[in-house]
Write a structure and sequence with these properties.
With about 350 residues, the protein is of the alpha/beta class. It is built from 12 helices and 12 strands. The chain has one domain: TIM Barrel (Alpha-Beta Barrel). It is about 35% helix and about 15% strand. It binds flavin mononucleotide. Keywords: Flavoprotein, Oxidoreductase.
């Protein structure tokens, strides 16, 4: 069947009404202790009412150690956090969308954490760039401590335990491991932030091994039937234009290893999904993923602001598309696209879910 925005699709046997997903977006709108409340519930449910087949949550932190990344970020660790999510999940599902929990460990990019005042990373390398001001950060990132084996094992277990809580207690339809955008798992994958000489460092396959171990541990806890995805990027929030020095061959290795690890979907994100991934070739990052992981569902994100751009990715290689900022401006993006209605311009203030709900009048 031709993949088009408004045809149904499946991931690991789970039916999705259409191919439009809301991309994961941190909203820093939980309580100080990471509990999502009514605003968060209303915010997420409005995307379901607006016709999205699925919503991927913002990154939820996974432990009471070093994973929290931003102030007022929600977690999926404490009973209160899980109970908060249970209500949000119910509201989204009642309004007809699938809901996937994104799990994050901030590593060296953590700029606020109620549990720790230090940061950890693969190696003691200070992140490039500046903390994100729109998430209340200021100035340079802290110098992280290099993680020891026990801390790495604990982080793997935190992802797995959080995945189990997300699915079995909060009721999410699946989980997405955040291995993109510069956070802990991407710090292991990235050559200049991972200088380890043990099994977690070395070539690109070795640097991916923490992500692969997390996938294995999560799968063991959630079972074969629950959706498990992974998000991968070259760019980072603190190093937007970063390109993998291993080029296409390195990317192909990463995607093939992720497929072999048994993820149900790979979610690739680039600034503009249709641009060549590397300067010495024409293939997009998504094309390379499609070629190297032909049996895995592919979710594509990045600048797909309107129906034409989204359909072009589905025609080229994507199974699903994830819409970020255009969804903030149009919580009813799928309905508008389906009906040929004008889309609202991208929002100036991407921070506030309240502003985003208001702008969309959902
Ligand atoms: C306000 C905001 C928060 C974001 N938070 C996350 C996040 O928690 N996890 C993640 O993987 N990406 C996050 N992103 C990146 C988006 O998922 C997406 O990759 C990016 O906005 C590009 O897609 P777009 O052009 O459709 O907006 C965020 C983006 C925005 C604008």
């Amino acid at each position: 069947m031709a993949k088009q925005l408004f045809t149904a699709g499946t991931i690991n046997g789970v039916l999705f009404n259409n191919r439009a997903m809301v991309a994961p977006m941190t909203r820093i709108s939980a309580s100080e202790t990471g509990v999502p409340g009514e605003i968060v519930q209303h915010y997420y449910a409005s995307f379901a009412r607006g016709g999205f087949g699925a919503v991927i949550s913002e990154g939820l932190y996974v432990d009471q150690a070093w994973s929290q990344t931003y102030a007022f970020q929600p977690g999926i660790v404490t009973e209160e956090q899980v109970a908060g999510w249970r209500k949000v999940v119910k509201a989204v599902q009642q309004d007809g969308a699938r809901f996937i929990a994104q799990l994050i460990h901030g590593g060296a990019l953590s700029q606020a954490n109620i549990y720790r005042d230090t940061t950890v990373a693969p190696s003691a390398v200070q992140p490039v760039g500046q903390q994100l001001g729109f998430y209340h950060g200021q100035g340079a990132y802290s110098l992280p401590q290099a993680m020891n084996s026990d801390q790495i094992a604990a982080a793997i277990d935190a992802f797995a335990a959080s995945a189990e809580r997300a699915v079995k207690q909060a009721g999410f339809d699946g989980v997405e491991i955040h291995a993109a955008n510069g956070y802990l798992l991407d710090q292991f994958l990235t050559d200049y932030t991972n200088q380890r000489t043990d099994r977690w460092g070395g070539d690109i396959a070795a640097r991916l091994s923490l992500t692969l171990e997390v996938i294995k541990a999560v799968r063991a806890r959630i079972g074969a039937d629950v959706i498990l995805g992974v998000r991968i990027s070259q760019g980072k929030v603190n190093d937007f234009h970063h390109k993998w020095k291993e080029g296409k061959a390195g990317a192909a290795t990463v995607f093939a290893l992720l497929q072999a690890a048994g993820v149900d979907y790979i979610h690739v994100t680039e600034y503009q999904a249709w641009q060549p991934a590397f300067s010495d070739g024409q293939q997009t990052f998504a094309d390379i993923a499609r070629e190297a992981a032909p049996d895995t569902v592919l979710v594509v994100n990045g600048g797909l602001d309107n129906g034409e751009l989204a359909e072009a990715q589905l025609a080229a290689c994507a199974d699903f598309v994830a819409i970020g900022k255009a969804a903030l401006a149009n919580h009813d993006w799928p309905t508008r696209v389906a009906q040929g209605e004008t889309l609202r311009a991208l929002p100036d203030n991407v921070l506030s879910p309240v502003a985003s709900i208001k702008q969309s009048e959902i």
